[in-house]
Each structure stands twice: as structure tokens, then as C-alpha cells.
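Work Package 3 (structural annotation) set out to generate three-dimensional models for the target panel prioritized at the project kickoff. During this period the team completed the workflow that converts sequence records into C-alpha cells, so that structures can be stored uniformly alongside our sequence database. As a representative example, we reproduce one entry of 133 residues exactly as it appears in the project archive.
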Amino acid sequence: MTPKKRAIPKPPGELGAAGKALWKALHADLDPAWELDARELHLLARACGCADHLAALEAVVAADGVTATGSRGQAVVHPALSEIRQMKLAQARLLSAIEVVDPVEAVRPATPAQGRARRAATKRWTRKESHGT
């Protein structure tokens, strides 16, 4: 029996083409049994807004080139490039905050120290079980 396909929620109306494409792509990649909660939908909507802003900024750079004329007539890096870099960082942070892995299956440490402690405890227990103590 094939799993039932989940309907993709309608993207927010204010999104442009790039934002809607990201919305649909992320939802299409989710397991059919997985649904995003309200917090994750909000983060996704923000990340999709970033996709729209990125598309607009990249269009400006494509039209103007990577340099612009500075106040003294010198060539300078196009100011939109800095905004693109910042927007990509913001989008990456928003997307990384969305849990798309089952939390039960993806037990991961909150900190590196907790991860080391968990591995050490697992080794101790595995050793005790193999020695019959």
C-alpha cells in the first residue's frame, strides 16, 4: 500500500515566485506523515520572503554588474552584494531552525559536552553488558 500523499499548505499570499517555489519544494520534500507546526510554518514563511528578496537583489546585480560607482567616481563593490550575503545567512538560519527530522529518530545532543557524555555513558554500559556485570 502506497503512503497517502499529503496536501501542501497554500503559501502566504504576499510571496513572490521564488518564495512560493521554496515553500512548495520544502513541503514536497517532507515525509507524507510529517507536518510543520505553527512556529515552523512562520519560519518557513520568513525564509521564503528571504528567497523573494534574494531574487530581487540578484536581479539588480545581474543588471548593474558587481561593481558600482563610488562617491568619488571610483569602482566599488555593488552594495547589493553585501545585502545578498546577509540575506543568505538569515535564510540559512531560518531554514536550519525548522525541524524536518522526526525528533524521536534524531536524538542529538544539545551541546558538544552532552554528546561526549552520552557517548562515554554508552561505552560504559556496553562494556558492562558484555562482561555480564
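Residues 107-133 form one domain.
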